[in-house]
Recover the amino acids of this structure.
């Protein structure tokens, strides 16, 4: 009987390990993603992983992040964005629902950062129609993310992006954008790899390249 129990315990441990490796592999692929096709494929992978790991916020978080990235890639072609922003909003909501907001402040900051990005993609659909509503929502989520974790490098990057692309008359500030992107990049050097959120290096470098 003891041998049978031990066997099933080992089997369960192997299954958990296999799922973790799969998530780790998917995140590793995400680190090298660049195109809409890349993010579409990975979004499907993370959505499938969410069914295998129903208590983990990370698969839903990464699925939403993939949809946000697609929205940013399509920002000059707003007609294509809506399906991705709708899915992204649902997915980041699922990720947030799995967190204990009182105990997981760092994780919640990461989720709110992506929620800000998803709402920013809704602005791209039609800035004249959606700019005020979703721009304000995006800003609200970003402020909350930074309140929870002022040195979250991903939230700092999104703040830098907003400051760079917002017209000066509406609060844009390119010198501040540069300062924030440099700070974010410095903080990212301390980030560990693995399945925890650690994206941002490529995005910061692309933004800083605009100042050269």
């Amino acid at each position: 009987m003891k041998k049978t129990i031990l066997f099933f315990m080992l089997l369960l441990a192997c299954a958990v390990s296999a799922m973790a490796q799969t998530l780790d592999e998917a995140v590793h692929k995400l680190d090298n993603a660049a195109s809409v096709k890349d993010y579409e494929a990975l979004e499907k992978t993370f959505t499938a992983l969410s069914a295998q790991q129903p208590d983990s916020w990370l698969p839903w978080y990464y699925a939403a992040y993939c949809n946000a990235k697609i929205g940013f890639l399509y920002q000059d072609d707003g007609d294509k964005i809506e399906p991705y922003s709708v899915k992204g909003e649902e997915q980041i909501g699922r990720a947030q629902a799995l967190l204990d907001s009182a105990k997981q402040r760092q994780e919640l900051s990461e989720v709110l950062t992506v929620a800000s990005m998803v709402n920013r993609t809704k602005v791209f659909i039609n800035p004249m129609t959606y700019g005020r509503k979703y721009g304000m929502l995006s800003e609200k989520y970003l402020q909350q993310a930074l309140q929870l974790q002022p040195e979250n490098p991903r939230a700092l990057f999104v703040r830098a992006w907003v400051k760079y692309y917002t017209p000066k008359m509406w609060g844009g500030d390119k010198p501040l954008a540069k300062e924030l992107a440099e700070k974010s990049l410095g903080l990212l050097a301390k980030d560990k790899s693995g399945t925890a959120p650690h994206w941002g290096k490529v995005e910061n470098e692309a933004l800083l390249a605009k100042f050269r």
